[in-house]
Fold each of these.
Amino acid sequence: MRWLLVAVAACGDPAPITADAYVALDAPAREGPGPGGGLLAELRFAVVGDTRPANLDDTAGYPTGIVQQIFADVEAEAPKPVFAVTTGDYMFASTSGAEVGPQLDLYLNARASYTGFIYPAMGNHECNGYTKSNCGPAGNDGQPPNYTQFMARMIEPIGEARPYFTERFAATDGSWTAKFVFVAGNAWDKGQATWLDLVLGEPTTYTFVVRHEPPESNTAPGVDPSQAIMAKHPLTMLIAGHTHTYRHVPAYREIIVGNGGAPLTSGTNFGYVIVARQPDGTLDITSKDYLTLAPIDHFAITTNGLVP
Amino acid sequence: MAWFRSAVLAVAIAACKQHGSKLDRLDPPPPATRIALDGELDEPAWNAVAMRGVFEANGVQARPYAEIRLLRDETHVLVGLYAADEDIRSDDSFDLTAGAFVAHLTADGRATPATVRTAVDRDGTLDDPNDDDEEWVIEAAIPIAALGPAPVAMSAERCDRTKDGVKRCSSWRGSFDPKTLAQIR
């Protein structure tokens, strides 16, 4: 992987992504995570989601305390993960109401109990709430405040201009590379399909796809098309949410992390997941209860997502 | 400062929920909105002024999550029931007892006795275990005249079999005086 480090060192900070631009393989030549990715001594990150209240516009019922505790737990992990990915659904707000901003206020304040860098995936509630909804410039459901405020307050601050993006990481010693490909299944268009095929073709040691909806939730416009594209390329792990529980689905090389504060649909408690690369290159995945910190699940996978 | 008010309200509600099955009501007085009995708790009064209770099991918040909300109009107590559910089945149900009144309300919209009017909204597929469902919501109208004298002792119970095969039951218990419920025009 020396060639990658050379490329990394030469590239400097990435230029802002322009519309429909395709960025050739690189990882920002900076220590630590940031816009576009970065150089890391260790690959160790947290996964948190979904975080919405049970009822539409129920800002008073936002699960602030749970979200805050989960991110405080992540902050207290030893060693602390240097970045986290979130799986979507940060609000449950009507597109014509006034609750998008207040709910994002609550979420972002609660999220601030973790000081690492956070890369957020878009959920259906960042469109109009329906799983079948499709937002963005080319979407049938337009750009409601749920979408525009998500973009302005969560996506643009990490240096991205679209709800779908990739983050590229490389080991400081050149021993591995990783790409995190964030698919926006509720802002799907031909441009995203072309981009996804290109970016998944980049050779990396690890490939993580972060998409709000799992494969079964295929009324979301981008689920089946992105699943078909993913099938043509290597995959280490699909990280999803949408279902308000935690689950490991080996058949899809998938974890569902939707137990971040939204009303729980199963017997599993609220919690989060830590993914940590081991010296032998395998990934150790631990799902934890947010109150007891006891493991809910624990397993390992190889670079191709299989259980060794 | 809207965010600040929301944050204070959220903290207050979270603190109240620590005390278990108490119903929590928020001021100010209710907006004058008619509730459409459609299974969607989308009228502002459900969030702003309804009395609320969170279901519990073994002394902690139930998993799967469920909650109850109460309003009233001139002649009926309006009940909102929320059930998070990864596998919605036709016979999933709530059992309500309010004073002398007993009702059985199912996820497929059946209700007994016939004097209770209901509507159900489901986010998921009925009787299909091959996908992940999210939730179902019931709005019900119970005649106040059928409840008996105040205070009205009320219980709501639910059992759900999750995908791991475990039957999980939870409940809420409380009491109320219909006159103190927020009244919708």
Amino acid sequence: MSSGKKWELAVSEAELSSMTRDLDEAHRETIPTMFAQAEDFSEELADRRGESGIVARRRFLMGAGAAGLGLALVACGAGSNSGSSAATTTKAAPSSAGSPYTGDLKVVALATALENQAIAAYTAALTAATAGKLGAVPAAVGTFAKTAMAQHADHAKAWNAVLTSAGKPAITGVPLSGQPAVQQALGSVTNVGDVAKLALQLENQAAQTYLFAEFNVTSAGGIATAASIAPVEAMHAAVLQFVLGQYPVPDNFLATDMAASPSTLTV
Amino acid sequence: MGDEKIDTRLLNELTVQSQDLNSDAVRITHDALGEFTEQEKERSAKRRWSPAAVIAGLVGVGGLVGAGRAAAATDSNDIMALQTAASIENLAVSVYTTAAGLPFIKSGNATVAAFITKTTAQHTAHGQAFNAAITAAGGKTQTGPDPKYAAVVQQALPTIKAPADVVKLAITLEDVAAQTYTKNVGQVSDASLRKLFGSVAPVEAQHRAVLLAVQALLAGNAAQLIAIPTMPAQLPAAAGSVGFPDSFYATTSASPVSEGAVR
């Protein structure tokens, strides 16, 4: 636990390395399986081009459109006391014409962009914490951010493997229409609570987008991969709820009203 | 576990809030069940008039039986998966209900007791959703527990002496539920069933995340931090990551679809 202005993890490098090693060992059984699944997914997509993919894309776009989504950002600025009720919604930009990502691959590209968005958010938060911009940062929050970020990187890597195997460019940035609003919100945070609220929205959005993908994409590999990631994002959300002083498992069923629409993808 | 750090009024308020939030999720799941019911009606009509059924009628009884088997094969797999899921939920409800009555839970940490109450209600809702889908598909509802894990519970019961023992057993059940439904998403034949399994698996994973954190805090003699709101600054560093050990949710321990099927 750190109480100083300049935040440092309250674990030694050795302890952190040990924790990372333990996590790596825990992942060893699941990650190869997931990458094999992603490879199957790529082959499956390569085998079927055309109508089924178009139908899948159409269904996803129609469904997400009905959900009317955008990222609702809590007012995170200093002095704000509006809490979660004061939200602004980013407008979905039209999907760029001539996108290399079509059908299920558009959903994969969206998933990768969302993962990169989470990585960027945690990176910015950790940077701000290290610079002392967030005040005292609890050690558990620092560990959470680093571990969640590493897992999002694993997810992004798996999705990018699918894209590149299909001959499509990897998604390395955050090509989402809502990203400027996220960056703006991150730039104005002044404490850990604000960061946690923002992270909670990103995690909920990711989990719900994966659920939406599970019943809207057509490829078995894509369905299985999304199904294996959604629970992990939901677990991140549960821990964040706990840290924020909220009940960690508020819903009986995961919803999809916060799922991201592929139309927010800007590539 | 004796320290009561929770503001129970706050927990009640949070529970009410979560119920409001949850109404959307319940609606979505009801939508999925509604879609599934409609699709089942359409499938049933198609089955009666399908070319296979007509051909079977032309070639005789033997052909008809064969066509019936073929038509039922996919549906029966879905129904078995739903029955197994309901059996896991039934067992979870039973275990949490039993746990709630244990003296060291009743007089122990109020947040743990509140978690058990809320989680029991959530598993009940899941069981009802799975059984509603079974009914929609024309199958027999599952009211009993998963036989494999009922045996595991029976074996564990005599060893349960403290909250940590309850937490350990609950982690096992939540994990098998989450793994099973995660796998079921890729196994069932219908998009609305994928939606149903996919909307429940993350909730079981969240239960597990909470329980893993509680387990770590109990092991670290920090039971006073099991509270809502907690004291984030006092949480040990590992509490931030112990709840989600894997990047991808495993399915290696998922129950086979037939495990809790109604015989």
